[in-house]
Amino acid sequence: MGGIGSFGAVLSGLVLSKGVIGGTGAVLRHHYFVWPAFTLIVGLATWRFLVGRDPSRRAFTLYLATMVVGCSLMGTAGFFGGEMLLGH
Description:
Strand content: under 5%
Distance between the termini: 33 Å
Order of helices and strands: HHH
């Protein structure tokens, strides 16, 4: 559900930024982190859907490590998103 919901977040972000994918300042810093996070989250959701509930131990460990990276990127993107709103 998080992978599907991320498409709504991206769409609303693109509407708010008037379609600008890069930007400048805090918007650019936000986008540096949000696009890789979005890619990882959608990729992991797709992998989880295809593999199902029975991945190998090694695959699940890699999945969790990649999820930690994705969550870190998303948290950093959220920080810079807050800076866009509250930092001015």
